[in-house]
């Protein structure tokens, strides 16, 4: 099929945007015309393609994560804490999580964005209810002194993961509703600040400061992208930074983590709060350029705690070296950039909710990946956040795949509108 727009497409009011975005020969902002079949004048074109590169990057990260989770967890049964587990326990559970996430993603693809827009406030309310429920002793499960999980049999569900998706959609829906008053602090910013404060208090009660940081980045980022006044954005950022400083100042545990981050090799911290960081850095040092080889990590042999979850990147660094780490960073950079491009296309098509949702999901994936990588590399203080799409964790994999399926849906509807169809 020719890469030139069809006659019916040229007559469509949005054909000028199709021409500006191009025919998909180079930049990611361009949409391939070959993904559409010609139709009779007046009919909506049928969608027959998708963003293949986006799909391959997601599948690549999931596949590499599965391999590295197996590599990082295969020795755990040697620990008395896991002596009842088979060497493949975490691998099989992670594989099951990916399978469930794949099914959920396929279902999500069939849900129009207008349905998500209507459901956004209710999704936010459901996430608040679950964040309250997990704090109840007879519902929430305590692991490592944190009450963050609700046992569901096939997996331990983490409400904070749903809260991330809920905040993305609620903030996007909120900005659409407040578009006419976005210059007013009291009417546009204050209600969102209160909602974020409620979520923050519930997360800190678990405690889960890492999830709160990610959700705060999502909320403030969408406010900024939605066009909130720059001075108000700076004020919000200053208040959030001040709140985090106060939280750290009045919490002995968090203050010790900061001191351990600054002086990880100090005798006072090397065997305590700085233990994970020092062994993570040792893992990266052993990996050098090309790594020790898949399965050859020494640090995963009960030296580096949580090697299959929070510190999976350190195992990648030790086994696959600088090359492997750079490849992972490049994949996440491309993925986040692509979500922002899809969001920008949607906004250009006057689909503001869809555009802000896609960009909010990009903020979520990019922000959480940046924090996890920063912690592993010693750039940021130690914080319990998984690497999206890769680290072991059922609810994290599930919600990440659902979120990216929403981005796929936004892209599908963008393409349909640019070729004369209706969403």
Automatic annotation (TrEMBL):
Gene Ontology cellular-component annotations: cell division site; plasma membrane
EC assignment: 2.4.99.28
UniProt signal peptide: none
GO molecular function: lipid-linked peptidoglycan transporter activity; peptidoglycan glycosyltransferase activity
UniProt catalytic activity: [GlcNAc-(1->4)-Mur2Ac(oyl-L-Ala-gamma-D-Glu-L-Lys-D-Ala-D-Ala)](n)-di-trans,octa-cis-undecaprenyl diphosphate + beta-D-GlcNAc-(1->4)-Mur2Ac(oyl-L-Ala-gamma-D-Glu-L-Lys-D-Ala-D-Ala)-di-trans,octa-cis-undecaprenyl diphosphate = [GlcNAc-(1->4)-Mur2Ac(oyl-L-Ala-gamma-D-Glu-L-Lys-D-Ala-D-Ala)](n+1)-di-trans,octa-cis-undecaprenyl diphosphate + di-trans,octa-cis-undecaprenyl diphosphate + H(+)
Location relative to the cell: Cell inner membrane; Cell membrane
Residue intervals passing through the bilayer: 47-70, 91-113, 119-139, 185-203, 209-226, 233-251, 311-336, 348-371, 391-410
Pathway: Cell wall biogenesis; peptidoglycan biosynthesis
Membrane topology: Multi-pass membrane protein
Listed Pfam families: FTSW_RODA_SPOVE
Gene Ontology process terms (BP): cell wall organization; FtsZ-dependent cytokinesis; peptidoglycan biosynthetic process; regulation of cell shape
Sorted UniProt keywords: Cell cycle, Cell division, Cell inner membrane, Cell membrane, Cell shape, Cell wall biogenesis/degradation, Glycosyltransferase, Membrane, Peptidoglycan synthesis, Transferase, Transmembrane, Transmembrane helix
InterPro entries given in the database record: Cell_cycle_FtsW-rel_CS (IPR018365), FtsW (IPR013437), FtsW/RodA (IPR001182)
Function, as annotated: Peptidoglycan polymerase that is essential for cell division.
PANTHER family in UniProt: CELL CYCLE PROTEIN, PEPTIDOGLYCAN GLYCOSYLTRANSFERASE FTSW-RELATED
Family the entry assigns: Belongs to the SEDS family. FtsW subfamily.
NCBIfam families: ftsW
Protein name listed in UniProt: Probable peptidoglycan glycosyltransferase FtsW
Species, as recorded: Sphaerotilus hippei
């Amino acid at each position: 099929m020719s890469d030139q727009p069809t006659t019916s497409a040229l007559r469509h009011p949005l054909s000028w945007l199709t021409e500006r975005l191009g025919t998909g020969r180079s930049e990611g902002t361009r949409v391939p015309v070959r993904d559409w079949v010609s139709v009779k004048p007046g009919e909506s074109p049928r969608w027959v393609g998708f963003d293949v590169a986006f799909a391959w990057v997601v599948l690549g990260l999931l596949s590499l994560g599965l391999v590295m989770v197996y590599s990082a967890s295969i020795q755990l049964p040697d620990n008395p804490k896991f002596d009842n587990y088979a060497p493949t326990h975490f691998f099989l559970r992670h594989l099951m999580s990916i399978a469930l996430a794949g099914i959920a993603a396929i279902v999500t693809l069939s849900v129009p964005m207008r349905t998500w827009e209507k459901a956004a406030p209710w999704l936010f309310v459901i996430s608040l209810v679950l964040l309250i429920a997990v704090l109840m002793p007879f519902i929430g499960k305590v692991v490592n002194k944190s009450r963050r999980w609700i046992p569901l049999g096939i997996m331990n569900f983490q409400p904070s993961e749903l809260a991330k998706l809920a905040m993305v959609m609620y903030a996007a829906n909120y900005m659409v509703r407040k578009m006419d008053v976005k210059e007013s602090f009291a009417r546009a910013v204050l209600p969102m600040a209160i909602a974020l404060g409620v979520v923050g208090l519930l997360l800190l009660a678990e405690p889960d400061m890492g999830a709160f940081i990610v959700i705060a980045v999502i909320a403030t980022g969408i406010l900024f992208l939605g066009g909130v006044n720059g001075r108000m954005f700076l004020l919000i950022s200053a208040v959030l930074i001040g709140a985090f400083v106060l939280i750290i100042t009045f919490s002995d545990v968090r203050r010790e983590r900061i001191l351990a981050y600054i002086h990880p090799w100090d005798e006072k911290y090397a065997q305590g709060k700085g233990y994970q960081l020092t062994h993570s850095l040792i893992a990266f040092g052993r990996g050098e350029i090309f790594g020790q080889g898949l399965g050859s990590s020494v640090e995963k042999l009960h030296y580096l705690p949580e090697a299959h979850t929070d510190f999976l990147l350190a195992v990648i660094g030790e086994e696959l070296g600088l090359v492997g780490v750079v490849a992972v960073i490049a994949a996440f950079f491309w993925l986040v950039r692509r979500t922002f491009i899809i969001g920008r296309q949607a906004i250009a098509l006057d689909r503001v909710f869809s555009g802000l949702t896609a960009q909010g999901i990009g903020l979520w994936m990019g922000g959480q990946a940046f924090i996890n990588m920063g912690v592993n590399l010693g750039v940021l203080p130690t914080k319990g956040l998984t690497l999206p799409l890769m680290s072991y964790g059922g609810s994290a994999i599930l919600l990440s795949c659902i979120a990216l399926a929403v981005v796929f849906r936004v892209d599908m509807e963008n393409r349909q509108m640019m070729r004369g169809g209706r969403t």
